[in-house]
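Subject: DUF268 domain-containing protein

B.,
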Amino acid sequence: MQYRQRLGIVIVCLGVTMLFSVYSQLSDYFTYKLVKVNSDAPYISAPSSAYVSNLLTSIESIRKDCGQLCNTSRTGLPGPFFDHILANVNCIALFKNKYIDIGHGLPQAPGQIPTELIDEFTMNGRIPLKKYYLNQQYLGQKDKKLVWSEKLIEDWIALAKRGQLNGNYGAIETNALRDGLQHAPNIKGGRVLVIGSEIPWVEACVLEAGAREVVTLEYAEIVSEHPLVKTVLPYDFRMNFLNEKMELFDAVVTFSSVEHSGLGRYGDALNPWGDIIAIARAWCVTRSRGSLTIGVQYNFYDEFLRFNADRWYGKIRYPYLTTNWKQIYRGEGYQRVHVFTK
Ligand SMILES: *[C@@H]1O[C@H](CO)[C@@H](O)[C@H](O)[C@H]1NC(C)=O
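Prediction pasted inline below.
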């Protein structure tokens, strides 16, 4: 073969490999996102008036206990990556409020936001509202027990070390999280809270980064057989805090989780500030100078709420999501990893 022909073949092969790798990353993403679509989505069925009035009562109670934190009309100060918002947070009230952790109580995830709440969900129209319906009940489902074996987690730690752990979103996103963890104070040797994960890929990355212990907070009941990974359900998490039985955490890590909080998709009740409250509670349980590492879907200039699938964050909502946390590092990924300290 001519040199140029051989070169041509090599270039074509490289191209195919690259395309395949992009394709498998994307298909990972889309399989995960789309496989659970429920085609019988009740887009048009109007919620009952009893449901709406109960919901509005609980929202008013949450608004009261949340105080400044849930007022997204407040302005912040310029920060390194986006505005820095400060608020007085009443941690006891946030953990005590019984409405924050309830389920939506409907046979399927709510298909629409009651008109009375649209302004709160969209920050008075600043966040565009799109439609993308998913129905996945986790909250309070006792039969859905997941088991994380020690071997699985150890295998994933080893894969992460080699940069080859796919996790939930492909190796590129996993490695973006690993990079963030290298910039997050107190992960190494720390006791780390992980918020929301169906499979223990975040936990594997946190252990790989040198954490002493990991505690996972999830709606679903998970049995962890790994000695360094513990799990806690939302109710017990609340009660432990209120009974002062909770040792503070050195760091918090969350990836692709809080953007769903309060949208009803996983069985939780609608709550316009579900995401903000989840991160504020993390603030409450983190010791001073501890860190927060977070990956959520990120479009700096083009954020939106896709009801009920997820929120995309940018310059408008990210500042409220991370109220009080100091911005210290911005990494990579389409769920762009950001690191903060308390
Ligand atoms: C929210 O904050 C804005 C701006 O500081 C203020 O004008 C408004 O009264 C606040 N709303 C509530 C309900 O406290």
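Residues 16-44 have pLDDT under 50 and may be disordered.

T.
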